[in-house]
Write a structure and sequence with these properties.
The chain is mainly α. It is built from eleven helices and two strands, in the order H-H-H-E-E-H-H-H-H-H-H-H-H. A two-stranded antiparallel ribbon has the order 1-2. Transcriptional repressor for the pyruvate dehydrogenase complex genes aceEF and lpd.
């Protein structure tokens, strides 16, 4: 029998692994600043040289970035899987918007299901906080802030699902999702009834997760996205009718001018 020698892991490698897990689990977010070196070494219970070595290794791997005189941050571009040219393609092709809605059915339905099953009291408190922010900007009618709060609400649900792949898939879609939600709301929100209904649907989703009902949570997501798709299609028909009316008016005007 061959025995392999057991090596004591380096302290810096243990620290590095813990920071990696915090990034993977969403405890540390892209762009977030780490606590100062002195504070972090106390939290981990290690020496500052060991901590510094771990940070340098993570910087070399592109997970952290150090700014001279400005501290250490989780890399901003972590998980940014969609490039700007691709986002432009999504925005310029109307059918792609419906493909994205279909993708959201799958991704967000699963997120809501597992969030209802697995969310801790702290997770539910965070989701509730995101919903309250959404409510505040909804009441103030601050459109840009409402879009941002809408995205944060959905991401807080993904984090509560406690599935690291699911969470980072959602985060990779963050910019695209912001564009998508913003584009949808800009078309839908001029009509107060639509706006009110969508906000009510967010409330139903929150209630299902807080009640720990995974089936109801998944259904709330599906109902919400089905409604958004239905309204967008109706809005598209309305825009087409308006364009036809304008063309007819323009032709009539040309006929009168010619006569």
């Amino acid at each position: 029998m061959v025995y392999k020698s057991v090596r004591q892991p380096k302290i810096s490698d243990v620290i590095m692994q813990q920071i990696e897990e915090m990034i993977l689990e969403g405890a540390l977010n892209p762009g977030q600043r780490l606590p100062p070196e002195r504070e972090l070494s106390v939290k981990f219970g290690v020496s500052r040289p060991s901590l510094r070595e771990a940070v340098q290794k993570l910087v070399a791997r592109g997970l952290l970035s150090s700014r001279h005189g400005g501290g250490t941050y989780v890399a901003d571009n972590l998980g940014s899987g969609f490039s700007d040219p691709l986002m432009s393609l999504f925005e310029s092709h109307p059918e792609a918007q419906y493909d994205l809605l279909e993708f959201r059915y799958a991704l967000e339905g699963v997120s809501a299901y597992y969030a209802a099953l697995r969310s801790t009291s702290a997770d539910k408190q965070n989701i509730r906080h995101c919903y309250d922010e959404l409510q505040r900007f909804h009441d103030l009618r601050e459109f840009d802030n409402e879009v941002r709060a809408d995205v944060e609400f959905h991401l807080s649900i993904a984090a509560a699902a406690h599935n690291t792949v699911l969470l980072h898939m959602m985060r990779a879609l963050f910019s695209l999702l912001s564009h998508h939600i913003g584009g949808n709301l800009s078309k839908i929100y001029p009509k107060a009834d639509y706006r009110h209904t969508i906000h009510e649907q967010h409330g139903l989703l929150l209630a299902a997760i807080e009640a720990g009902d995974p089936v109801a949570a998944r259904q709330a997501v599906h109902d919400h996205l089905a409604y958004v798709e239905e309204v967008l299609q109706e809005q598209g028909k309305e825009n087409t009718r308006v364009e036809r009316s304008l063309r007819r008016a323009d032709l009539n005007l040309q006929d009168k001018t010619a006569s």
